[in-house]
């Protein structure tokens, strides 16, 4: 079974890659030569195009073709055509054999280690963390069962997994739970390929690219291909492509060309924002490719149009966060061009400005981090910039930052500091800071007799640019603006170039004394060992939230420290190749060990303290899974009502619709949550059966009466084409107690209805006869606990260990709600309001 899943996962990635190549056929192959794309960069672009395009294509096919096998056959044909057309552009040639082998030798074990510390060590099949995967798995399972993709799925983008995974599940029997495991490993391999594509743009032919790639691979913090991670990683490759084109002819690159590219990119962003629909953005991308073909044939501005329109449109198609990623990449690229011009004008006052920024920005960042730590521990009064930021979000998004919303959860300097901290890690941060300080004191800029900057100038420009750009972006992130920390991957990529360049200039470009290389290796080994022993691996205080997480990774961390010590000893060797490999290995492995240990620490930030006797990081257990599988086998037409954690696993396994929507397990609209909790409490009241049923129906009728469009479509009462053409940017204010229903909201809350009004409303929604649907409530100890929570409180991420009280089961069995299924921790009951 695992072999089948592994093969189908590989097929999943190949289909999306081939579909992307098919779209790129609209432009002639000449654009690859004009933009000087490497094979790795071309593959990353193709997959980014194909990931979302495959979902849109399957969505359109499902509207007109009922046979899922035929839908899959069409996609396979399109993908096969793209792979065949692009074969000359991505097939490994005889000259690429060595590079491909070196990449595999480095990437495969690093990918396996990354998969282990990020997921494998904390999971035990079939249990794991699928809290963020609920929506795509639900959509995929629904598609596998019905043959039609739900265009009203509660996401603001075309999820790159749901359509194709659902197609493979409905035709070839792909197990979505197993797929969520193998998919992660292939995701990491893709990110490592993207890292290589990025450093190719910085170091096209230099051996430095392998050192930079190794540092990027061992420090990789992106471990799952989602729409957001795909967009930001492809943005990094986009920056590499811009850099490779400008580094080859930086002195000849005209101001007119730079401004034209920036204007085209800005126009693309504005046009995509105005179109506000994924299908239309795909049409914009295809129109851009057609324009590239025309301009390539005439030899005018084809490359500028491709880089300014096609690549940004591709990123916008993947995720709305690209409205942030694209300007960040362009700003970084423009800063590089500005620094090149400054250096070429030596001597100049601007050089002093660069030196000032190189020292001032890190000091400001350190001051902010210290202030955040002071606020975190109560030494400094907490501050919030949400009022200031709300003026910006109000202008761009049409909404303020309110407590309890996702914008609020993603804002603030503390959140930004934590997210940046776990992306970088202390070892990498300390090493790169000390390395740049050491370089600044010992490496002057060399100039030739004519006054021109000598051969070392390229390295100087690259280092200064990456350091200032990374620090500047970090300073912006630490301002605490909502979700600005999502550019952390871009910041890490810039600092990786800084680390590689600093390392090479200090320890590779000349033969350093033995004591110097031993000192560097010993310092990194000692720092990593101290962190592992004192913080990461052992619980010196058992009351800390992360104490129980440490046991998951302790053997891996200790093994890493032993290997690190062996590599440190290799730096004593006289052979230049041996000690260079040893030094590179010490830096990379030291960062990797730090990432491993940090992964166990930050788990408490995401999930809270681990309960006793818990061996798996999971929000569901065997009882939850048993309920979900029973519902899938016995009740295909059921609308589920429960707490969001229980509904999450049930929807992921069954594809069943829910009475309300939620974007994350702990973010449910307050008004909807209040109504739902009242329904559950009323069902468990010790009042008479008939009165209890009438009270329950009067409370649940407003929820059902304004049920979301995703559920309406699943019940056969919504327009599919209209769903595909809807706006992807849903802006809804907090729901009032009364008002008009919103098709995208989790539910509309209105005053309670009379018994007859409630029954009429529910009957009108659920219908009768063969098309009848059932309202089904799932009651667990967690559901009961959820009903007693205040608006600002959250449930534990982990499932409860105690069984459901027998008195509750007895009350349900003797009440008006038929018990369809029950186990140790759950009861599935039907709410017969429509009968």
Features:
single chain; 835 residues; mainly alpha; 3 domains; four-stranded mixed β-sheet; 34 helices; 2% strand; globular
Poorly predicted spans = 444-449, 451-455, 730-750
Order of adjacent strands in the largest pleated sheet: 1-2-4-3
Number of domains: 3
Overall structural class, as computed from helix and strand content, comes to mainly alpha
Q: For the record, give the distance between the C-alpha atoms at the N and C termini, rounded to a whole number.
A: 43 Å
In round numbers, the mean pLDDT is 84
Shape: globular
Over the alpha carbons, how many angstroms does the gyration radius reach? 28 Å
The amount of beta strand, in percent, is under 5%
Record the SSE blueprint:
Elements lengths: L1 H23 L5 H6 L3 H26 L3 H18 L1 H4 L6 H22 L15 H13 L15 H11 L3 H27 L5 H11 L8 H22 L6 H21 L2 H21 L3 H17 L3 H23 L4 H28 L9 H11 L9 H4 L3 H12 L1 H17 L14 H21 L10 H20 L6 H23 L13 H21 L5 H32 L14 H13 L3 E4 L2 H11 L15 H14 L5 H17 L3 H6 L5 H5 L30 H12 L7 E6 L1 H7 L18 H8 L5 E4 L4 E4 L5
Parallel strand pairs: 1-2
Antiparallel strand pairs: 2-4, 3-4
Task: Describe the protein in words.
This protein is mainly alpha-helical and 835 residues long. It has three domains: 2-85 and 106-344, no CATH class; 511-615, no CATH class; 622-830, no CATH class. The protein is built from 34 helices and four strands. A four-stranded mixed sheet has the order 1-2-4-3, sandwiched between helices. A hairpin with a 4-residue loop joins strand 3 (819-822) and strand 4 (827-830). Helix 1 (2-24) packs across helix 9, helix 7 packs parallel to helix 27 and helix 21 (457-477) runs antiparallel to helix 22. It is globular and about 90 Å long.
């Amino acid at each position: 079974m695992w072999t089948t899943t592994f093969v189908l996962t590989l097929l999943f990635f190949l289909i999306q890659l081939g579909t992307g190549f098919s779209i790129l056929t609209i432009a002639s192959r000449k654009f690859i030569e004009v933009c000087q794309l490497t094979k790795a960069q071309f593959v990353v672009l193709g997959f980014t195009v194909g990931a979302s395009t495959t979902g849109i294509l399957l969505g359109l096919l499902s509207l007109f073709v009922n046979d899922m096998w035929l839908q899959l056959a069409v996609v396979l044909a399109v993908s096969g055509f793209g792979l065949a057309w692009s074969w000359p552009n991505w097939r490994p040639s005889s000259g690429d054999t060595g590079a491909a082998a070196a990449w595999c030798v480095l990437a495969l074990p690093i990918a396996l280690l990354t998969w282990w510390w990020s997921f494998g060590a904390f999971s035990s099949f079939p249990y794991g963390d699928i809290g963020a995967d609920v929506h795509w798995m639900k959509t995929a399972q629904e598609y596998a069962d019905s043959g039609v993709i739900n265009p009203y799925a509660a996401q603001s983008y075309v999820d790159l997994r749901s359509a194709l995974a659902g197609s493979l599940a409905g035709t070839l029997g792909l197990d979505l739970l197993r797929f969520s495991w193998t998919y992660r490993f292939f995701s990491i391999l893709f990110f490592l390929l993207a890292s290589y594509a990025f450093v190719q743009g910085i170091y096209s032919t230099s051996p430095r690219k392998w050192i930079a790639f190794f540092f990027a691979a061992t420090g990789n913090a992106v471990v799952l291909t989602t729409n957001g991670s795909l967009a930001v990683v492809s943005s990094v490759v986009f920056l590499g492509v811009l850099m490779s084109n400008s580094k080859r002819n930086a002195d000849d690159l005209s101001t007119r060309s730079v401004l034209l590219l920036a204007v085209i990119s800005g126009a693309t962003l504005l046009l995509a924002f105005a179109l506000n629909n994924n299908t239309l953005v795909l049409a914009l991308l295809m129109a851009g490719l057609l324009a590239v073909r025309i301009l390539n044939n005439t030899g005018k501005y084809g490359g500028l149009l491709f880089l300014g329109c096609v690549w940004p449109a591709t990123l916008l198609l993947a995720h709305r966060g690209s409205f942030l990623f694209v300007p960040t990449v362009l700003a970084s690229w423009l800063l590089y061009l500005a620094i090149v011009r400054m250096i070429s004008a030596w001597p100049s006052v601007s050089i002093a400005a660069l030196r000032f920024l190189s020292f001032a920005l890190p000091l400001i960042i350190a001051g902010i981090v210290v202030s955040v730590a002071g606020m975190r521990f109560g030494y400094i009064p907490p501050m919030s910039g949400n009022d200031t930021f709300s003026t910006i979000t109000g202008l761009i998004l049409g909404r303020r930052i309110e407590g309890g919303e996702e914008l609020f959860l993603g804002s603030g300097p503390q959140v930004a500091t934590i997210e940046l901290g776990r992306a970088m890690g202390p070892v990498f941060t300390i090493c790169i800071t000390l390395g740049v300080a050491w370089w600044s004191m010992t490496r002057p800029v060399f100039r030739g007799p004519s006054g021109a900057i000598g051969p070392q100038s390229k390295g100087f420009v690259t280092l200064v640019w990456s350091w200032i750009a990374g620090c500047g972006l970090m300073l912006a992130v630490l301002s605490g603006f909502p979700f600005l920390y999502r550019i952390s991957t871009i910041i890490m990529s810039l600092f990786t170039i800084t680390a590689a360049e600093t390392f090479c200039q200090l320890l590779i470009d000349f033969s350093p004394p033995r004591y110097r290389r031993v000192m560097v290796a010993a310092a990194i080994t000692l720092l990593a060992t101290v962190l592992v022993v004192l913080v990461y691996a052992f619980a010196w205080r058992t009351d800390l939230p992360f104490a129980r997480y440490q046991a998951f990774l302790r053997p891996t961390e200790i093994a890493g420290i032993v290997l690190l010590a062996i590599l440190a000893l290799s730096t004593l060797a006289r052979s230049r190749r041996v000690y260079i490999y040893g030094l590179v290995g010490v830096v990379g492995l030291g960062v990797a060990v730090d990432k491993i240990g940090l992964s166990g620490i930050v788990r408490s930030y995401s999930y809270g303290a681990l309960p006793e006797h818990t061996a798996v990081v999971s929000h569901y257990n065997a009882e939850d899974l048993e309920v979900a599988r029973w519902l899938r086998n016995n009740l295909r037409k059921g609308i589920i009502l429960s707490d969001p954690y229980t509904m999450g696993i049930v929807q992921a396994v069954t594809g069943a619709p829910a009475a309300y929507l939620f974007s994350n397990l702990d973010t449910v609209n307050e008004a909807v949550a209040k109504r739902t909790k009242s329904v559950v409490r009323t069902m468990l009241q010790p009042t008479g059966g008939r009165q209890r049923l009438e009270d329950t129906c009067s409370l649940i009728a407003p929820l059902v009466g304004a049920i979301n469009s995703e559920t309406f479509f699943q019940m056969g009462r919504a327009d599919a084409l209209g769903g595909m053409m809807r706006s992807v940017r849903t802006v809804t204010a907090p729901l009032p107690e009364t008002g008009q229903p919103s098709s995208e909201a989790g539910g509309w809350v209105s005053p309670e209805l009379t018994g007859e009004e409630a029954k009429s409303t529910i009957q009108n929604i659920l219908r009768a006869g063969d098309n009848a649907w059932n309202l089904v409530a799932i009651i667990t100890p967690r559901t009961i606990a959820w009903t007693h929570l205040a608006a600002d409180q959250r449930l534990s991420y982990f499932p409860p260990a105690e069984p459901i009280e027998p008195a509750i089961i007895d009350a349900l069995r003797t009440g008006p709600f038929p018990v369809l299924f029950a186990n140790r921790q759950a009861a599935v009951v039907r709410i017969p309001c429509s009968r």
